[in-house]
């Protein structure tokens, strides 16, 4: 039996390490191809607006991230604190990390201590904002940390997030009382399995939250973090400036 991997013929006489290396290369090539496809979709949908693509790499090995990095990807999103800490130690220092997992108050310091942390996208209460603000002081961050306020736009009990009606007051609190944080925008996960042929109520809700909040805080410019693998094009068309795409770039994830 032989296996054809990009111009290389493998047989049972090929040393194992050679096979493994080639398979790793094949895997990296897939990531690069997927990423470039997603990038071009983002470019088309954004229609000359500035839209940031965050490659969501939870559960994925360093080699996959490096493949994306090698073709210019710099923004990566991670959900688990320990995994983010490990990856940030072992991967290039100019990666810009987004923490997109559930934020626990007792993990704020660990997250804030990551030097190349770009933003925490999951600040879901005043209490969490205060904890993160305090954490930034105690770890000695020199620049304010970018944050997004997570909104539970689908009103699902299982989802974290501030209610849409509390959004302006949480934002106001961050602006007034959290000097170590820089309020960058609003974020939603939204309900899974929405019909992408129809208007997405989660996207509409987040756009509405932004409008209401900017009315309360004139001069504030808010980004929108919404859209994942199945709906990032639609999200950009609805006004997203930050899409978080995982499986369309790195393939499906094994539950761990
Ligand atoms: C996992 C995850 C994503 C990426 O999901 P895909 O459907 O794989 O693109 C985006 N945002 C958050 C908050 C996630 O947890």
Give the gist of this structure.
The protein is an alpha/beta fold and 256 residues long. It has nine helices and ten strands.
Explain this structure.
Helix 1 crosses helix 2 and helix 6 (167-177) packs across helix 7. The mean pLDDT is 94. Helices cover 41% and strands 18% of the residues. With 256 residues, the protein is of the alpha/beta class. Helix 5 (126-138) links the parallel strand 6 (117-123) and strand 7. It contains nine helices and ten strands. The strands form two sheets. An eight-stranded parallel β-sheet has the order 9-8-7-6-5-4-3-10. Strands 1-2 form a two-stranded antiparallel sheet. The protein binds pyridoxal-5'-phosphate (PLP). Pyridoxal-5'-phosphate (PLP) binds next to strand 10 and helix 9.
Keywords:
globular, 8-stranded parallel beta sheet, two-stranded antiparallel ribbon, binds pyridoxal-5'-phosphate, alpha/beta, 256 residues, 18% strand, 10 strands
């Amino acid at each position: 039996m032989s296996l054809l991997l990009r111009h290389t013929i493998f047989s049972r006489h090929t040393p194992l390490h050679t096979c493994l290396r080639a398979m790793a290369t094949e895997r990296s090539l897939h990531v690069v191809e997927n990423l470039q496809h997603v990038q071009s979709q983002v470019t088309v949908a954004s229609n000359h607006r500035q839209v940031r693509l965050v490659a969501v790499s939870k559960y994925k090995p360093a080699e996959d991230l490096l493949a994306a990095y090698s073709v210019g990807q710099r923004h990566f999103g991670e959900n688990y604190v320990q995994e983010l800490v490990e990856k940030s130690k072992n991967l290039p220092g100019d990666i810009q990390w987004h923490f997109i997992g559930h934020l626990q108050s007792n993990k704020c310091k660990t997250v804030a201590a990551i030097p190349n942390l770009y933003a925490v996208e999951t600040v879901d209460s005043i209490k969490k904002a205060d904890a993160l603000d305090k954490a930034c002081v105690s770890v000695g961050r020199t620049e304010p940390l970018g944050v997004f306020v997570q909104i539970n736009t689908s009103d699902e009990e299982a989802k974290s997030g501030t209610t849409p009606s509390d959004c302006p007051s949480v934002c106001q609190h961050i602006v007034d009382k959290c000097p170590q944080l820089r309020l960058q925008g609003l974020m939603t996960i939204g309900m899974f399995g929405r019909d992408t042929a129809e208007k997405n109520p989660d996207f509409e809700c987040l756009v509405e939250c932004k409008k209401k909040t900017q009315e309360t805080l004139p001069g504030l410019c808010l980004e929108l973090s919404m859209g994942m693998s199945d709906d990032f094009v639609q999200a950009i068309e609805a006004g997203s400036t930050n899409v978080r795409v995982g499986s369309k770039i790195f393939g499906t994830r094994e539950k761990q």
